[in-house]
Design goal:
This protein is of the alpha/beta class. The protein has 12 helices and 22 strands. α1 runs parallel beside α12, α5 runs antiparallel to α10 and α6 runs antiparallel to α7.
C-alpha cells in the first residue's frame, strides 16, 4: 500500500522503509565517500490498530482525525504514523458454517449473507469461506457483488458431519489474508462447536494476536437442537435388528454376506439382534440383542434365511430400528410381517451387482451415529457451549471486534447489519514498533478529544 511506504533522504544516506507481511526494514546504503562506512540495519514493524468509537449514548463518532487518538504500547505512548478514516475500504473474509443444524437453513443463510454484502461499501472486497468437515475458499477477494452472489449459491457443497472452525479462522488469518494490504475483517457464523480441527484454541489466539484483522463472531444457539439430536441418537440407535430373508436358494449366501458386511460397519456400541423368516409372514428371533460381534456372526452363519417351515409360529415383533435384507423386493406384504415393513429399512441384495449393495449398505452404516459417543456428548454439553462462547468472545474482543449471540438463525439479518454498520465506522491507526518478537504486548487506544466515549480496539499483539 502506497500509504505504508516512505522514502527518506538525509545527508547523503538513502533510507528505504518497506512493508511486507507486516514488517518494515530500514536499510542504510553505503555513502559515496571514499572511506567505508559501517552498514546500519534497524528492524521495525508497523502495528495497525482498528478502532470503533461511540459516545455515551451509543452513537458512532464520525469525522475524527488522527490527533483525536493516542495509542499506548505496554503503557507507553506511540507516535501515530498511519491513519485511515471510516471511508477506507476493508477486505472482509466471510466464514459460513454449513454443518450440523445450520445445514437445514441454507436458503436463509444465502439470503442473509447476500444482504450483508449489499450493506458494505462498493469498494469493500469480500472472500467467502465455507466451513464444515473441510474448509473451502469458494470465492477469493472481489468487489463484484454478482460474482459473490453466484458463489453463495454454492453453499452446502461441504455439508457433512464435523466443523473445522478453528482451522478455518487460522487459515484465513495466515493464508487467505496473505499479501493483502489495508484493513482486514473476519465475519463468521457458527454455533461455536469445533469438531475435527487440528488447530487448538491456543493456535487461534496466536493467529489473532499476530494479525491486524478485526473479528466478528455471529454465534447461533444450537445447544437445544444438538441435545435433542444426541438424545435421539443415544436412544433410537442403541439397538438394531437384522432381518434376513430370501426366496431363492442361490441368494442365501449373498444375503448372509450382506448381513456380515453391514454388521462390520455399524458402530460397535450398537446392540444387534438377528431375525430370520422361517415361513411367510412369520419372523423368528435367532439371536437376542448383543454387542458381541463374534456371537452375531455365528448367528448369521446358521440362519436359515429362506422360508421353509410351513406354519412356523412368529416369535419376534419389530419395535424399533430394523433392517430387512432380501433378494426380491416384489410382493413384500405377502412374505414379510406388517410390523417389520413398518419399521425396517429395506435393502435389495442382488447377486449380479455386489458392488452396488456394498456401496449402499456402506453409506447407510456410515450415517448411523454411535450411541456411545452420543451419550458421552450429552455429558458436559452445556459446559462445552459455554466455554466455546467465552473463547470466541475473548479473541473477537482482543482483535477489536465482538461476538453477537443469536437465539435463532432467523435473527441473522439484524446482526449482519450491526457488523456492516460497525465496519463503516471504524478507524485504523498505525505506528512503528520495536517490540520484542514472539511476546504478547498490550495495546490501548485513548480518545484525546475530550468527552466521555467508548473505544473498542485491538488489545494486544505478537510480532512474528
Amino acid at each position: 500500500m502506497d500509504s505504508y511506504r516512505r522514502h527518506i533522504c538525509r545527508r547523503g544516506l538513502a533510507f528505504a522503509i518497506l512493508v511486507g507481511s507486516g514488517s518494515l526494514v530500514m536499510l542504510a546504503q553505503k555513502p559515496a565517500e571514499p572511506q567505508k562506512a559501517p552498514a546500519i540495519r534497524v528492524v521495525v514493524n508497523m502495528v495497525v490498530v482498528n478502532a470503533s468509537v461511540t459516545d455515551s449514548s451509543g452513537r458512532r463518532l464520525s469525522d475524527l482525525a488522527s490527533s483525536d487518538f493516542e495509542v499506548l504500547e505496554d503503557g507507553i505512548k506511540q507516535e501515530v504514523k498511519f491513519f485511515q478514516s471510516t471511508e477506507s475500504p476493508f477486505h472482509v473474509a466471510l466464514l459460513i458454517d454449513t454443518s450440523g443444524s445450520t445445514s437445514s437453513k441454507l436458503k436463509l443463510l444465502r439470503k442473509a449473507a447476500e444482504r450483508f454484502l449489499n450493506q458494505l461499501t462498493p469498494q469493500d472486497r469480500v472472500a467467502i469461506v465455507e466451513v464444515a468437515d473441510r474448509v473451502q475458499l469458494i470465492q477469493s477477494f472481489t468487489a463484484d457483488r454478482r460474482a459473490l452472489a453466484r458463489r453463495l449459491d454454492r453453499l452446502g457443497s461441504a455439508v457433512r458431519s464435523g466443523t473445522l472452525l478453528h482451522d478455518a479462522v487460522v487459515d484465513v488469518l495466515e493464508n487467505v489474508f496473505q499479501r493483502v494490504e489495508g484493513r482486514k475483517a473476519v465475519v463468521f457464523l457458527t454455533d461455536g462447536q469445533d469438531t475435527g480441527s487440528k488447530a487448538r484454541i491456543g493456535d487461534v489466539r496466536q493467529a489473532v494476536y499476530q494479525s491486524d484483522a478485526v473479528l466478528y463472531g455471529l454465534l447461533v444457539d444450537t445447544e437445544q437442537d444438538v441435545e435433542k439430536v444426541l438424545k435421539t441418537a443415544a436412544d433410537r440407535y442403541s439397538k438394531m435388528a437384522l432381518v434376513l430373508e430370501a426366496i431363492s436358494e442361490r441368494s442365501v449366501p449373498e444375503v448372509k454376506q450382506a448381513a456380515g458386511f453391514l454388521l462390520d460397519r455399524l458402530p460397535a456400541s450398537i446392540e444387534v439382534c438377528v431375525v430370520e423368516h422361517r415361513s411367510a409372514r412369520r419372523a423368528s428371533l435367532l439371536q437376542p440383542y448383543t454387542t458381541d460381534r463374534e456371537v452375531l456372526e455365528k448367528a448369521i452363519e446358521r440362519a436359515r434365511v429362506r422360508a421353509g417351515v410351513a406354519g412356523a409360529p412368529s416369535t419376534w415383533r419389530a419395535s424399533g430400528n430394523s433392517v430387512l435384507l432380501t433378494d426380491n423386493p416384489r410382493n413384500l406384504p405377502s412374505r414379510i410381517q406388517d410390523d417389520i415393513l413398518r419399521e425396517a429399512a429395506v435393502f435389495l441384495i442382488d447377486q449380479a451387482d455386489r458392488a452396488k449393495w456394498q456401496a449402499i449398505l456402506g453409506e447407510f452404516a456410515g450415517n448411523i451415529p454411535d450411541p456411545l459417543l452420543a451419550r458421552e456428548g450429552l455429558v458436559g454439553l452445556s459446559e462445552s457451549y459455554r466455554q466455546a462462547r467465552n473463547d470466541i468472545g475473548s479473541f473477537c474482543s482482543h482483535s477489536g471486534g465482538k461476538s453477537f449471540d443469536l437465539r435463532r438463525i432467523e435473527d441473522l439479518d439484524r446482526f449482519y447489519d450491526a457488523v456492516a454498520d460497525e465496519l463503516r465506522h471504524t478507524y485504523s491507526l498505525g505506528y512503528y514498533s520495536r517490540a520484542t518478537p514472539g511476546k504478547l504486548h498490550s495495546l490501548a487506544v485513548v480518545f484525546a478529544g475530550g468527552g466521555k466515549v467508548e473505544i473498542r480496539a485491538r488489545r494486544g499483539f505478537v510480532l512474528p
